[in-house]
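Fig. S4 source data, part A: sequence.
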Amino acid sequence: MNSFTPVRAARSSRHGWVDIAKGICIIAVVGLYARNDLEALFGQAGWLDPWSAFARPFRMPDFFLLSGLFLSAVIQRPWRSYLDTKVAHYVYFLVLWVAILLAYDTAVLGHEPAAGSAIATVKLYIWKLIYPDHMLWFIQTLPAFFIVTRLLHRVPRWLLWLVAAAAMASHVRTGFAPLDNFNAYYVFFLSGHFGAPLIHHLAEKARQRPPLTWGLIVLWAVLNQAAVSAGLTHVGGLDLLAGFVGISAIIALSSLIADVSWLRWLSYAGSNSIVVYLGFYIPLTQFTRLVHAQLPELPMHLVATLSVLCGAAVPLLLHRLIKDSALRFLFVRPRWAKLVTTASPAAAQSA
């Protein structure tokens, strides 16, 4: 299963918590970028400031763990099929959305200087493919995880995991962002892949014992906030521990609320996380600039809430509106961009 998959049939209730967990994480990602934009425009971000700090230990680690959760089902596929769903899928969106966001940043926000010539524009675009802006670094990193894991699948799991954990905990920075991102998060991806049975068992046990689970979640929230406030989640090794504890809490929480009817929107956002992930930045930044220009006196907590809602809801609505139009290529990879043009229903579901 890809971390990001276009609209599809709902999962069985047994694994319904996965989409809830992804929904929590994608809302946390939108909140982070809303916080950054509001801070730049208004000098404050309301409740998004403490929330973004609270979510940092688990926000991206959980996304990467969920991305590896169902890898065992497909890792032995023929290389062409594997590369199609695990590499070409993300490369397509990276190539497309780097161009879209570069044009937006240059022409609308003025964040990037005009290139001045076609050659300079191409050079800048290639640079952005290597060092993606905004949220696109995640889409760049995932294919590397899938390729490396497939190539090293015969390496003892315990050895590969220990090396990945040491790379994360050491906080070694090379200055080459793709490699640094790989080192920072590969251990979580491997944990999702190697630990899938344990993770599903944790989710099931959490569902079976709600009072105990809620008590542990509250305890985690208190301890996580204390660790964040003390700066402990930036310390090598402790950030790794905080990541796994936070992931466990989100899995448990997601399992408890997976069947809550009024939270179906969160599951929907999670099951369409690529839509939100790719599409939230433009409506979010347009909304915050509109408020800054026209309604600067609105309470910041309200602005923060509306910013997140706008960032998450607009791309989902846009996706529904264009899914049968020529613009669907924005969120759904077209046939010409696929290495494998046909797949069985079972293969499509696990992709």
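Fig. S4 source data, part B ends here. The chain has one domain: 13-350.
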